[in-house]
Amino acid sequence: MERPFRVLFVCLGNAIRSQMAEGFARRYGSDVIVARSAGLTPAGRVMPLTRKVMEEKNIDLDDAYPKPIADHGREPFDLVVNISGVPLPSPTAPVREWMVKDPMGGKEEAYRLAAEQIERMVMDLILELRRLRKKWLEEFHGRNPASRDTKSD
């Protein structure tokens, strides 16, 4: 699989956790991930503390805004990462559940803790997808006769 994996990060409002995950994935894993985010019940805006905490990590969310899953329409995804804590309605791809406490209504430190946890999880996902792609490429090219050296008589 030479194309990037398409990953949708979902939380409740698409105002904090899924925005953080999308931001980290875009920043660190653009070689293997095309990241999108959405909310089950999108908020009116990305929370200011979300923007502040991500800016501290040099990730710009200026263009980010909450979106419903429906905004991604028929866009195909290889994986959906559910950070909402509730079951997703009819997912169209395999779902991975991430348990991250929602910092909504909490202090700045709660946002930082959520960001640190999400950053680690996104980095683990990126490493996993890089290994998966490498394995796939090795297996594919190992079985492809055109990629093998041939000796002529």
Brief account:
This protein is 38% helix and 14% strand. It has 3 helices and 4 strands, in the order βαβαββα.
| CATH fourth-tier homologous superfamily | Response regulator
Strand arrangement in the largest pleated sheet: 2-1-3-4
Listing every helix as H and every strand as E from the N terminus to the C terminus, the arrangement reads: EHEHEEH
Q: In CATH, what is the class?
A: Alpha Beta
The proportion of residues forming helix, as a percent range, comes to 25-40%
Spans of at least 5 consecutive residues with low confidence: 144-153
User: The biggest beta sheet, please?
Assistant: 4 strands, parallel
Beta-strand percentage range: 5-15%
SS field, number of helical segments: 3
Indicate the CATH topology. Answer: Rossmann fold
The radius of gyration is: 18 Å
Secondary-structure content class = alpha/beta
Number of domains: 1
Q: What is the molecular shape?
A: globular
State the separation between the terminal residues, measured CA to CA: 35 Å
Mean pLDDT: 90
* DSSP summary, beta strand count: 4
